[in-house]
Design brief:
Elements lengths: L7 H8 L3 H6 L7 E2 L6 E2 L6 E6 H5 L8 H4 L5 E4 L9 E4 L10 E2 L1 E5 L2 E2 L6 E2 L9 E8 L3 H4 L5 E7 L7 E9 L3 E12 L2 E12 L8 E13 L4 E16 L6 H6 L6 H6 L2 E16 L4 E17 L4 E21 L7 E21 L9 E21 L4 E18 L11 E17 L4 E12 L22 E14 L3 E13 L2 E5 L4 E5 L2 E14 L4 E16 L19 E11 L3 E10 L2 E2 L7 E2 L2 E14 L2 E10 L7 E4 L9 E3 L4 E9 L1
Length: 681
């Protein structure tokens, strides 16, 4: 075991601090991460990895969308918190910024079960944000770890069985008709345990045509089969019968009334309905002191219908079956006297979408003629291996390789006699690799360097053929990326942790959206380059007071790109990403008494189009949360209040990239409040 893996006591000794002093104060402890497929100390990992613990993720937060918990991660930018029909859009190092809805180019895992389907799309609407216990974010191409993803990985753990009996009931109310009622319970018994959470939320919304009704259940059940083996069952149920979409508006409409919906959104009653159920089983077996086996199986069914905010073929519906299995073997044992950890495994995932599209022209969104009916099938088989070799007590070498085979099939079921049949197949075989090294300069400071390749296939939505009908766009190819990165991590004294990463990502055949008026289509740009700096700092000023900060600089440019209309965008900034982002937070927390937290988020300007003709101004947002804890006999009552956008700034919660009609903007709410109470029994 390398000697640089520190405990709090070693940190104090290294700083020359007397033990008695250390016992009276708090100190930052090392963090262990496992999102990189091998459990290891964060400081030893040759990658930019951000970690958010339960306290930062949930304490006093409203929990509308995942971005509330991720704002402290440098290199990550999220939009669309308040549109529950289009859902949260997250980008890491620019990947995913131009997704029209949902999360794109990022592997999303929740309790070890993927929320990213085979074709690369992710939705975060089925995550119970009120019970998040830990989030790990790998920034940068990660195909060598998880396959089809150029942006990175978001790995989330939610409430698990607890050693003490947990029984809580909570209620929260706020501006714009927001309310949520929830309950949760957890307990670990001898040999088995459970963790349950359920809530119901209603939200009228800041803008017209933005009402939401949503219910969620999350459950975990574990059984200890023997001293060496355990099995965990995970159940998630989402019911969203109402999720309205106010759509984007143009600048003149923003000046006239920020809260209005687009005319078509109101006329067609745009929005979505979703039902989703997930069942997962994870098996862990310690085969010996050095050998570990982990297996998983899962199944997700999603029933989805959405009216888009334009007349035409704008009502889409699908029933999706997404299922798969994975097996991973890990061995921790020396090789030729050198400490070594090796892991290998396979992922097999399958996606089947029964998809339809209907013509809608009448008010109220009544469906007319069916314009598309097709069965979409996507299969993915991935085989990977990763090795961490400690060459010395100071130097670790990490290598990884993965092979992915993807097959996409469309069965056009709408073709009648004499009609063109859009059925077809596309397949891709991709190798991905990574090489990284970590060197401990001292016991408290490490530097690393890494090179990795990644790929991102088009999704079924992106495969849409701009020439009309269904089937595949025959010209569309996966985008390929190679990431070069150096970084430093460590501790300053006993109370400051820092993380710094400098990177460059070269991308070929980047998937770029263009709008033909009725819907989005995609094309490949030639080449693009991403260069950036990511830095974060965590400082425990005292045992109760902490300061956190994160900064991102992004220089993302098209190197070669001439679009389908002959427009040359070489040298233009990639739209949808601000050049600079800053996050700062000052937090006071005293267990048994309460907390007070103030944060500021500052975003630079960005462009809404490939030509960089539509500039969106930067903005700053200040938010605050205060909570008080009070004992009521054997129970604990926590009351909290939060204020979003304290300075009442005007900004946009979402910018729709390359919108054909100039309706780029979705205004964010002005100053708003929420108040909640939690009773722990």
């Amino acid at each position: 075991m390398p000697t640089r893996r520190l405990t709090g006591a070693l940190l104090l000794a290294a700083a020359g601090v007397p033990a008695a002093y250390g016992q009276e104060t708090t100190e930052l402890e090392p963090i262990t991460v496992d999102s990189s497929r091998i459990e290891r100390d964060l400081q030893d990992t040759p990658a930019a990895v951000g970690v958010v613990d339960e306290q930062d993720a949930t304490q006093g937060r409203q929990g509308l969308q995942l971005d509330e918990s991720l704002v402290r991660i440098p290199g990550l930018f999220a939009q669309n918190r308040y549109n529950f029909a289009q859902n949260l859009r997250v980008s890491i190092r620019g990947f995913g910024a131009r997704s029209p809805f949902g999360i794109r180019g990022i592997k999303l895992l929740v309790d070890g079960i993927p929320e990213t389907v085979v074709d690369g799309q992710s939705q975060s609407d089925a995550i119970d944000l009120t019970t998040v216990e830990n989030i790990e974010v790998i920034r940068g191409p990660s195909s060598a770890l998880y396959g089809n993803a150029t942006g990175g990985v978001i790995d989330i753990d939610t409430l698990s069985p607890t050693d003490y009996p947990l029984r809580e009931a909570a209620a929260e109310y706020g501006s714009f008709g927001y309310n949520r009622i929830s309950a949760r319970a957890a307990k670990q018994h001898d040999g088995w345990g459970y963790a349950l959470s359920a809530w119901n939320m209603n939200y009228r919304g800041y803008r017209d045509q933005s009402e939401t009704e949503k219910r969620l259940f999350n459950g975990k059940f574990n059984v200890q089969l023997s001293d060496d083996a355990s099995i965990e069952t995970i159940v998630r149920v989402l019911d969203q019968p109402l999720g309205e979409d106010p759509a984007g508006i143009d600048r003149d409409q923003v000046r006239d009334d920020r809260r209005q919906a687009s005319a078509n959104a109101a006329r067609l009653n745009s929005g979505q309905e979703v039902d989703q159920q997930t069942l997962g089983v994870i098996y862990e077996h310690a085969l010996s002191d050095v050998d570990q086996l982990t297996g998983r199986v899962f199944y997700t069914r999603r029933d989805f219908e959405q009216q888009l905010p334009f007349p035409g073929p704008s009502l889409i519906a699908y029933v999706r079956d997404f299922y798969g299995t994975g097996l991973q073997y890990t061995r921790t044992a020396p090789i030729a006297g050198f400490p070594n950890r090796f892991t290998m495994g396979m992922d097999a995932e399958f996606q089947s979408d029964d998809r339809e599209r209907f013509l809608v022209t009448q008010p109220g969104g009544q469906p007319g003629t069916r314009t598309l009916q097709q069965q979409e099938e996507a299969d993915s088989i991935g085989i990977y291996a990763q090795n961490v070799l400690s060459l010395t007590d100071r130097l670790d070498l990490t290598t990884g390789i993965r092979y992915d085979d993807l097959e996409f099939t469309i069965d056009d079921r709408s073709a009648g006699p004499g009609d063109f049949d859009d059925s077809g197949e596309r397949s891709f075989s991709e190798f991905s690799g990574t090489v990284g090294a970590t060197y401990a300069v001292t016991q408290r400071h490490s530097v690393y360097t890494t090179v990795g390749t990644a790929f991102e296939s088009p999704t079924f939505t992106e495969f849409a053929n701009p020439s009309g009908g269904g089937g595949f766009n025959p010209d569309l190819q996966p985008q390929e990326a190679i990431n070069y990165e150096v970084g430093a991590k460590g501790f300053i004294g006993t109370r400051i942790r820092y993380d710094l990463a400098l990177f460059r990502v070269d991308v070929e055949d980047e998937l770029v959206v263009f709008d033909m008026g009725e819907r989005d289509f995609y094309e490949n740009s030639g080449e693009s380059e991403r260069r950036g700096v990511e830095a974060s700092l965590a400082w425990d000023l005292t045992s109760d007071l902490s300061l956190s900060a994160a900064y991102t600089y992004s220089d993302f440019v098209f190197q070669e790109f001439t679009d389908v209309n002959g427009n040359d965008f070489a040298g233009e900034r990639i739209p949808g990403i601000p050049e600079s982002v800053f996050f700062g937070e000052l937090a006071w927390r005293k267990p048994g008494t309460g907390f007070a937290i103030l944060d500021v988020q500052i975003y630079d300007e960005l462009y809404a189009d490939n030509a960089n003709q539509v500039k969106v101004a930067g903005y700053g947002v200040v938010n605050g949360r205060i909570g008080v804890e009070q004992r009521l006999w054997e129970n604990l009552l926590t009351v909290h209040v939060g204020i979003n956008n304290i300075l009442d700034d005007e900004f946009f919660s979402n910018v729709r990239i390359n919108d054909f009609n100039g309706r780029f903007f979705e205004p964010a709410p002005d100053r708003n409040f929420y108040l909640g109470a939690t009773l722990s029994l």
